[in-house]
Structures are given as structure tokens and as C-alpha cells.
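Researcher: Here's a chain I'd like modeled. Treat it as a single chain, no partners, no ligands.
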Amino acid sequence: MRKLLPSTVLIVFMSCFVIVSCKKASKDSQEIEIVELGNDIYGTKSSIIPVISEKAKIYGVQWLGFEDFEIEFRSLNGSTLEQLRTKSERLVQYSDSLTKKIPDTLNSISISSRLVVVRTRGNLLFQEVHKSRLDSLRLENAIDEMNVAVTHLILQLNEKFEKDEIDLQRKEADDNDL
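Model: Modeled as a single isolated chain. C-alpha cells:
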């Protein structure tokens, strides 16, 4: 009987150890991580966003919401998380509006498709900044993708007016040859 006593004590001790360890592990997994909102800056201020050509600006003024969208977008880089939450919400609203009200002059497949991409990237950025667990790398990536999408939209707007100018010159040259 004396030989069973140390082994029984050992088994009871090990069982208690396992139970306490399991309770601690489940308690640790239930703890909620609190994320402190700091003053971290997201997006690179040095992002090179193309300038809208003068011709595109003329039509951009007539495109309701485009100027507001551009102003909001250009202030996106170098923002804090709270600022990004506000700006991303506005960018989503503006891009929805722009998609619905494309002026006839700008209504082309290439511009429409760029707008769809901008709208999608805006929504993804909005989702990323409103997650309960912030992943700064994914947030930076979402901002970079938004920068690329808007850059392509601006380039497409500029190219459309360059192309229209070239087409007009060719037409005038053809008319003069007749």
C-alpha cells in the first residue's frame, strides 16, 4: 500500500496541474486585446499623384463631386487612423456619386472601369480602417492600392483629353485638305 501512495500522489498532482493549465489557457484565449489608437501616420506623404490637365479640370468642375473627391483623396496620405476613418467614408460616398453621374463627355469604358476600381479600393480601405483589430501592414497596402487606382483614373482622364485634342487636329487637317 505504501508503494501506491507516492504514485497516487503523483497522479493527483499531475491531474491538478493539467486542469489548472487548461483553465489558464482558455482564460488567455478569451481575453480581448485592446488596441490603443495612437497618432500613427499612415500613407506616404511623398506619394506622387499626377496633376489633372487643364482640359480635364474644366470638365471635372462640371462633374458634381469630383473636386471634393480629389481634395479628400489628396489629403489621404499622412493621416491618422481617426482621420482615415472619416476620409475613407467620404471617399466611398464621393466615388459612389461619381460612378452614378458621369458626364457624357467623360462617359467611356476606360474611365468607367477606372471609377469602378476606385470605388472598390475605397470600399476596401473603408473596411480596413473600421476593423476591430488593426493590421497596419494591410492598412498601408489598402492606402497604396487606393493611390494606384486614383492615379490610373487621373491618367485616363488626362489621356482622354489628349486623344480628343489629337483627333480634333486630325479632323481639322483632313477638312483643310479637302
